[in-house]
Write a structure and sequence with these properties.
single chain; 292 residues; alpha+beta; D-amino Acid Aminotransferase, Chain A, domain 1; D-amino Acid Aminotransferase, Chain A, domain 2; 2 domains; nine-stranded mixed sheet; six-stranded antiparallel sheet; 8 helices; binds N-(5'-phosphopyridoxyl)-D-alanine
Length: 292
């Protein structure tokens, strides 16, 4: 594998990504024992950084790990990382593991030296074609654990589920558990029914996306009818619109599910409205250098 020419961060040091090395005994490597964040950056301004750092802190607390930095220190390190890349729009990846430990033992080590790793890759917005015409998805039973609210690096189930989409030549796998919509393999899912935007309520069975929260906020701000409530699988199959949201995909319309069109197979009337609200918010926030 050729290393991309990016600057990364490991345990306090900024260095070319190719030069960063961690121990083979790292618990992130051996157990998937760690958490992560993916933060979108537009024109070198991180979007909703406070919220991403809050979710990072929540994930750390949920796995009983101290936060290695305060919010201001995180913000300053992330800005330093952003400043060292050649592109303006970036996706900042932050990962903290419970660090190296020996002997290999499932239980926490008595002394923990966390591994803190970051890198920033170029963020490319979804292509115009996907925005204009929507994307396809497949559905699958949610085979993940019961703490999907933690942004854990142990993503084997998500990886397998996402591969089902790739193998089917579509963009996402939409997950259902006990007859209810949860989310996508790497995104949140919202639907529209009879002019009302429906969003599944945050729970331990889904990751509450920062983009999901922003879309709900924008719906409220623009008086788009909205209900946050449990959504039946049947309701998704008969939805007027299905949307997916994530930090890398922003908001996309899902126009086909398991090979069948969603409604008439085109993005519905609310989608372009939300897409515009999102772009206006993003551009305004970045122009003003703030996102509140
Ligand atoms: N994934 N649900 C899951 C399972 C996810 O992996 C993601 C994001 C989301 C959306 O969260 P947000 O809006 O905060 O990006 C929901 C990121 C992009 C990733 O794993 O790279």
């Amino acid at each position: 594998m050729d290393f991309p020419p990016l600057v990364g961060f490991l345990n306090g040091r900024f260095e070319p990504l190719a030069d960063l090395q961690i121990s083979v005994l790292d618990r992130g490597f051996l157990f998937g024992d760690g958490i992560y964040e993916a933060i979108p950056v537009y024109n070198r301004h991180p979007l909703r950084l406070t919220e991403h750092l809050r979710r990072l802190a929540d994930s750390l607390a949920a796995i009983n790990m101290p936060n290695p930095y305060g919010a201001e220190e995180w913000a300053s390190l992330i800005q330093k990382l952003i400043a060292q890349q050649s592109f303006a729009d970036q996706s900042v990846y932050v990962q903290i593991t419970r660090g190296p430990a020996f002997p290999r033992n499932h239980a926490f080590p008595t002394v923990t030296e966390p591994t803190v790793f970051m890198f920033a890759d170029e963020l490319l917005p979804p292509c115009k074609e996907a925005v204009a015409n929507g994307v396809a998805a497949v559905s699958a039973a949610d085979i993940r654990w019961l703490q999907c609210n933690i942004k854990a690096i142990s993503l084997l189930a998500n990886v397998l589920l996402k591969q089902q989409a790739v193998d089917a030549g579509v963009a996402e796998t939409i997950l259902f558990r006990d007859g209810y919509l949860q989310e996508g393999a790497s995104s949140n899912i919202l639907i529209v029914k009879e002019g009302v935007l429906l969003a599944p309520p945050p729970s331990n069975l889904m990751l509450t996306g920062i983009t999901y929260d922003l879309v709900i906020e924008l719906a409220k701000q623009h008086n788009m009818p909205l209900e946050v409530r449990a959504i039946l699988q049947q309701e998704v199959l008969g939805a007027d619109e299905v949307w997916l949201t994530s930090s890398s995909k922003e908001v996309l319309a899902v126009v086909s599910l398991d090979g069948k069109p969603v409604a008439n197979g085109l993005p519905g009337p609310l989608y372009p409205m939300m897409y515009d609200y999102f772009q206006v918010f993003k551009n305004e926030a970045m122009r003003l250098g703030k996102d509140k």
